[in-house]
Each structure stands twice: as C-alpha cells, then as structure tokens.
Amino acid sequence: MKRILHILAANPLTLCGAVLVLLVVMAALLADVIAPYPEHAGAVVDFVNFNKPPSSTYLFGTDLVGRDLFSRILYAYRISLLLGVVVLAVAVPVGVALGLMAGYLSGWCEYLIMRVTDVFLSIPPLVLAMSIMGVLEPTLINGMLAVTAMWWPWYTRLVYNIVRGEKVEGYVLAAEVIGASRTHTMFREILPNCLPAIVTKMTLDFGFVILIVSSLSFLGLGVQPPTPDLGSMVADGAKYLPDSWWLSVFPGLAILVAVFGFNLIGDGLRDILGADT
Q: By CB atoms within 10 Å of each CB, which of 8, 52, 58, 162 scores lowest?
C-alpha cells in the first residue's frame, strides 16, 4: 500500500484520472439524487422550455423537447458504465481462456484459435460492431453483444503472447514435473503472471468501450430514444451547430471526461502492477 501511495503521489495524472472516474461513477450511481429533473431521463416533453441555453435553472441547457441535458447526461453515464462492465465481464474471461489454451497447448488448438482471432482482428472494431448491429435490432442487449463480439480477440492475442514466454519458465516446468494437470498449470501457475497486463488493459478498454458504444449510438445503431445516451445526444445536437452548441458540447465533454479518466488510471495501474510484480 505504501508503494502504491508513493507511485500515486509521484504521478499526479494518475490521481487526476482516479478523481475523474470516481466523479463519473458517483454521478451514475447517484443520478436519482443529483439530477434536478430525474423525470427528464424518459419520454417527457416540455415545449415551453425547449432549446434553452445553459442557465442557473438548466445547468447544461435543454434539448429540442425541453428536457434538461444535465439530468440526461447523468443517466446516460449509467448506460455507458453498464455496457462497459457487461462487455468486459464477458469478453475478458473468453479471451483470456482462449489465449491460455492457444499459448500453452500449442498444436492444432493454437492454430485454430489464433487463426479465428486473426480474422476478427483484421476487421476494424467499429465496422464489425456496425455490421452486427445492422443485422440485429438496435437495442441495449444487442449493443452489448455487438461490442463483446469485437473485444475478446484482443485479450486472446495479449494472453497468448505472454503465455508463449511464460511456459518455458522454471516454475511451469517444475509444476509439470511434479504432475500438475494442464488446467492447474494454465490457471493456477501461468494466469497469475498475466494478471497485471490484463487488469491494465481492462482499465484502458473501459474507456474505449464507452467510446465505441457512443459511436454506435451516434450512427443510430446503439441505444434508442427516449433512453438517454451520450452518443445519440451528440448526434442530435450536431444538426444544430453552432447556434445550439450546448446540445453537442456537453455530452461530448461527458464522453471525454470518462475516456480520459480511465486512460489515466490505466497508465497508473501499469506502473503500480509492474512495481508489484
């Protein structure tokens, strides 16, 4: 703990990232309490106050149907964080397990897994997600499936490269000599040495997942109205720039804060976990 605190004190950017992420998480969790107009997260219209600029009454202004942008951004953070958690919770175990198998077992298993991985990696992530969402109905669950389908290969490739170097180390050979099973060797001996890289990539990827999901919503393939989503809010406001600048600027800044915060934490975790290992 002293070493971690020392690294954080020596790297103010990591501390800044932690503060940004904490603000985003607290904003999402406490949206019901913080949001001045929580009902504006749903199908509500208020044409008397439509398209209002930022003011003391509406901190970030209102959209084209009179809904408070600040309240909708808080609830949109919930959707973004939920997507990030679900996507990584599914993609990481799948990618890590396949990477362990390909790197340690070798042979036809390695060839099959890595060739399929190469096919997925050869397709740009956003294009792959757009293709999947073009076939499926644009819903929250299908959005999770689309992003998950494009994310596991990165963890397979990462773990595969690490395992290729680790499986010739002495501790692995010792485990094999005393009769440890392949499953034990992969998950109890090699996997712990892959965790620093996996955790660091997960932190960095959390921001990228939010960015990809927002991009899909920007193109109309993600979360659908009236559910608040940062990407769709930016897309709706882009039609009215520069006059109604607040419609796009504040949701865009919300995306920037979340992605920037997770990136800074990822860089800090790389130093911390590297020091621990």
A: 8
- How many Cβ atoms are within 10 Å of 209's Cβ, its own excluded? 26
CB 38 within 8 A of CB 31: yes
Domains by residue range for the chain, with CATH: 2-34+60-276 (1.10.3720.10)
Integer Cα distance of 221 and 91 in angstroms? 20
92, 171, 188 from 182: Cα distances, Å:
21, 14, 10
Q: Determine the number of helices (DSSP H) and then strands (DSSP E) in the chain.
A: 12, 0
Q: Quote the longest CA-to-CA distance of the chain.
A: 77
Whether the CB-CB separation of 207 and 17 falls below 8 Å is answered with: no
The neighbouring-strand residues paired with 68 are 62
From the list 207, 247, 249, 251, the residue with the least C-alpha distance to 231 is 251
- Which of 71, 14, 86 lies closest to 41 in space, CA to CA? 71
- Rg of the chain, C-alpha, whole Å: 22
Q: How many CB atoms lie within 10 A of CB 115?
A: 10
Report residue 145 as tokens.
Answer: 């499936």
pTM of the complete model:
0.84
Q: What is the pLDDT of residues 152-172, one digit of tens each?
A: 999 999 999 999 888 888 888
